[in-house]
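Feature request, filed as a ticket because there's no other form

It would be nice if the structure record came with a short human-readable summary line next to the tokens. Right now we just get the raw output. Example of a typical job, pasted below so the devs can see what we mean:
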Amino acid sequence: MSQPISRRGVLIGGAAAGAALAVGARRPAAAEAGPRPRLALRGVTVIDATRSRPRPDSTVLIEDDRVVAVGRRDEVPVHHGVTVVDLPGRYVIPGLSEMHAHSIGTHEISPPLYLANGVTTVREMAGSAVVGRWRDDIERGALAGPRWTIAGTIIDGSPSLIAGPDDPDSALLVTDEAEARRAVRRVKAEGADFVKIYSRLTPEAFDAIADEARRQGLPLIGHCPDKVAPARASRLGQRSIEHVHTLWCAASSRDRQVRRALDAITIESGDYAGWFRQFHKAEWLATSHYSPRQAERLFERLTSDGTWVTPTLSMHLIVDRPEDLVRDDPRLKYIPAEDREWWQWAVDNIYLPGRGPAEIRQQRELFDRRLRFVGAMRRAGVRLLNGSEAGFIYAYPGFSLHEELALLVRAGLTPLEAIGAATLEPARHLGVERDLGSIRPGRLADLVVLDADPLADIANTTRIHAVVADGRLITSARRKRMLADVERAAARTPGDTSRAAPVGCGCHAPRKIRL
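Raw output as currently delivered:
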């Protein structure tokens, strides 16, 4: 057995620029107190993205927090003292990774929702002291939850989309090289695992941030700024680019015209809605003159630099087609009242107002184009990460990851490739491929047991029978209790200090400050 590794130890830290997050070594967190029983999951079909074919009628043997053997039932001996869980007709995949989250609520909301949905790793995209405390509690076994890697305070230009007059501390605003470097050093002092950047940075500030992040050993992740070409961001070491909108603006035969439209965007502080409408015009222009040749050049740059893309199709679907949102979704029972109110407010005040028939038609068409663009990236070999913007309006933590999987398949990924975007590729991105992302001896025991074959229908990832988190089995009965506990917690009104963040994700909509 190898030395146990903590959840923070697995995900924290950075190597040099362009390198993935490093692996540390501390005592692992536990979903519940006490020693782990030795487990044998017997009779399952094992599926992971390192193998083109599933392995039927297998046994997965788990000791402490590690998988120690995987093979056909007659190949893996099960000795005395091992708890055997017979699972004939069921399927096992690696624990899932939510690679773009803005977690909401208290420790009684997001952490259990992730685990109940098979999400065992989360990349938190905005700094949060509260989420940091959740991670510490998970580390010492006081809270059940996923492994967490957490950004620092978001760095943006000025004026900023997200740091308005009512919420000036939601981002570090920089306008020149000196401020940009100081911001990166502050993010490191916060204890951040990576630098998260936003849309309104100038090229000068971006260049300084990229260089300073490399000097400080912090991965650079986030939006590709409006005024920075994605190929340049990739070349300078941005480890992952979030969302589709800036990328495809660099894949147009009207490149100069699109660039002028992007450069001409002007906003006031916190004016997300104004930016959104101006950017929409640039997107429509770019995609109406899509150039496969320009796209191929961009994709070659991304693949050669080892830059991942997190398409967040779930977020784009919500923003492109807000008229289709289900406002009475039964999963709202898991969401605290103030978040539900914020979601409704954001839709009614940011995304729906002023949408005439022509804009609605364009936005609906844009989403179909996004699907095709993601399919083109996949065919070109661009590395994709599954991130659903969990915690964004009507993006239910844990549940939304499965919606993103389905959208990736709609975009042209095979079900196995989509699963890989939520398991193997996140492990590679985080630099923990030897610990996570597949089901092999020596890997950490983060697993999801499904009642139906996800390769036959990706929607079957929602048919969760059980979860193994850090070597501990969460049975079907316990999952039901966890969800019932979340429902009860959501019905209570917590104090502000226990929340993950002010109301609103602060990323694709400014936070609504309650009066």
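Something like this underneath would help us a lot:
The chain is about 35% helix and 15% strand.
The longest helix spans residues 357-380.
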